[in-house]
Write a structure and sequence with these properties.
The complex is a heterodimer of chains A (247) and B (256). With 247 residues, chain A is of the alpha/beta class. Chain A is 39% helix and 24% strand. Chain A has ten helices and ten strands. Chain A is globular. The N and C termini of chain A lie far apart (47 Å). Chain B has one domain. Helices cover 74% and strands 0% of the residues of chain B. The longest helix of chain B has 31 residues. The chains are: A alpha/beta (247), B mainly alpha (256). Chains A and B meet through helix 1, helix 2 and helix 3 of A and helix 1 and helix 4 of B.
Chain lengths: 247, 256
């Protein structure tokens, strides 16, 4: 079966010489809920940026459902939805405009855009806020707008970079339920998060990245025997007992 | 997959137009007031004391120059600020992650540049008419100059918007290049009014050909070759267009 995402020998070196991703390879099967973990600066967001077109890979190949993300970038982009870590929106635009414009960029015609936007405003409880400027919204509402924007074109691969950072417990649990529904309906999800509980609860496969390389990759169960936190700390080079002792 | 993402292209135009309509005072009212003051002072107060130029009142002579100066400014400010702010606030990433081609992004931006320039120009024509100047020698030629010069400065604005790392750099080209060259490009004077040793400054200044061409389209008065100006304008559009396309393709200033 064609993988949802296949990354081979990806390398990204920034202009100043910083190697953010170093020969990273990984595969995500269609329908998977994939946890992509690693400390800050490990290369998670850079990898995501290379996959989605925000960054240009220095070398290596990226395929989305078999479509080359660099050579056939337009076709590849149609298959992906991205909810980034940072709020990359026009702060003066309204949630409705942000979602509707994104639908337009993806080529959805007016009637389809309206239907999708209405449904997403409803789903994320944004109806009463849909005409306010984005900058006037609370952190949780902003996060919902970003997620709605990622979903407007019904992507087959949804990439969520810290989707629950800064949101309250209630919304986080609501988002978890929604993501599980989406995944059940066939959407492949790649999730990065620093909340290990979230990854443990949602993901079926986990990869840990450190210093730009995948250091551990496998089904969630393989990580749970010793506990996800211990597995994570040992894979990233930290020693859990030492850290616990220092605390 | 469709060759052209028409809906995406139209969305860029709708979106950028919505952005400029949020700030109508800055985008349209300010250049109209500035043009009004120029027309009033140079055309209405100073003008009557100046002899006619090629059979035209000074106000008729000066209006095309004022109009072109504002078209250039509108075009440059539109694309440079649009690209710069999209980069600065990172919402350029919305376009980067979508299935828009580089050409669609560029044409979408330029369409809004032309819209803003044409609306600015029409407003100035209305102000001119209020001062009794209603002359249009060749409408097609007029549109060629407004659209062609808008495209040139729209493309230059995109390059500056991609290059600028701060607000200071964003305004540098306007302060040190566009405004001075507009003023010495024959907005307020004919070439023959300059001392002979300074005339090369006009003929070697590209802005002179833009202003001269527009003036010819409006009042039929010309001091240089409109054909040369037109060929130069089309060639410059093509060169700058290819350059901007290349910058988008390599992601210069756009991608990490």
């Amino acid at each position: 079966m064609t993988p949802a995402l296949s990354i081979t020998n990806l390398r990204k070196v920034y202009r100043g010489g910083t190697v953010a991703v170093n020969d990273l390879s990984m595969t995500i099967e269609p329908g998977d809920f994939f946890g992509f973990l690693g400390p800050n600066g490990a290369g998670k967001s850079t990898t995501i940026h290379c996959v989605t077109g925000i960054a240009t890979p220095t070398s290596g190949t990226i395929e989305i459902f078999g479509v080359d993300a660099v050579k056939s970038y337009r076709e590849a982009r149609r298959l992906i939805g991205l909810s980034p870590q940072e709020f990359n929106v026009d702060p003066f635009a309204t949630p409705r405009q942000i979602v509707e414009w994104m639908g337009g960029y993806f080529g959805l015609h007016a009637a389809e855009r309206k239907k999708q936007t209405d449904a997403l405003m409803e789903r994320f409880d944004l109806v009463e806020h849909q005409k306010k400027a984005f900058r006037e919204l609370s952190g949780g509402l902003k996060r919902r707008v970003i997620l709605a924007r990622a979903l407007v074109h019904n992507p087959r691969l949804l990439i969520l970079d810290e989707p629950t950072a800064g949101v309250d417990v209630e919304l986080r649990r609501d988002l978890w339920r929604y993501l599980q529904e989406l995944n059940r309906d066939g959407t492949t999800i790649l999730l990065t998060s620093h909340y290990l509980e979230e990854v443990e609860r949602l993901c079926r496969t986990i990869a840990i990245v450190s210093r730009g390389k995948i250091v551990r990759h496998g089904p969630k169960e393989e990580f749970l025997s010793a506990g996800l936190e211990t597995a994570y700390l040992s894979a990233t080079g930290a020693v859990p007992d030492h850290i616990a002792g220092a605390a | 997959m469709n060759l052209v993402n028409w809906v995406g292209l139209w969305t860029i135009i709708r979106r950028d137009t919505a952005r400029i309509l949020r700030v109508p005072i800055q985008v349209f009212i300010a250049p109209w007031i500035s043009a009004l003051l120029f027309i009033f002072i140079f055309g209405f107060v100073v003008g009557p004391r100046i002899a006619s130029i090629g059979g035209h009142r000074y106000l008729e002579f000066v209006l095309p120059g004022i109009l072109m100066m504002n078209v250039i400014n509108a075009a440059f400010l539109q694309s440079s600020s649009q690209v710069y702010f999209a980069r600065f606030l990172r919402y350029i990433e919305e376009a980067l992650v979508s299935p828009l081609s580089y050409i669609e992004m560029i044409i979408g931006s330029l369409a809004v540049v032309v819209f803003r320039s044409v609306v600015t120009a029409l407003g100035i024509l209305v102000i001119g008419a209020a001062f009794g100047v209603v002359t249009m020698h060749a409408m097609g030629e007029f549109l060629f100059w407004v659209v062609g010069v808008s495209a040139i400065f729209g493309l230059i604005g995109i390059i500056v918007g991609l290059w600028a790392k701060n607000f200071e750099q964003l305004t540098m080209l306007n302060v040190f290049f566009i405004t001075p060259l507009s003023f010495v490009g024959g907005v307020f004077n004919t070439v023959s009014m300059l001392p002979p040793w300074l005339r090369w400054l006009a003929y070697g200044n590209p802005f002179f050909y833009f202003i001269n061409g527009l003036r010819h389209s409006m009042i039929g008065f010309s001091e240089g070759s409109e054909t040369f100006g037109a060929v130069f304008t089309v060639a410059l559009c093509a060169i700058l267009g290819a350059w901007v396309w290349r910058l988008y393709a390599i992601g210069w200033g756009l991608r990490e």
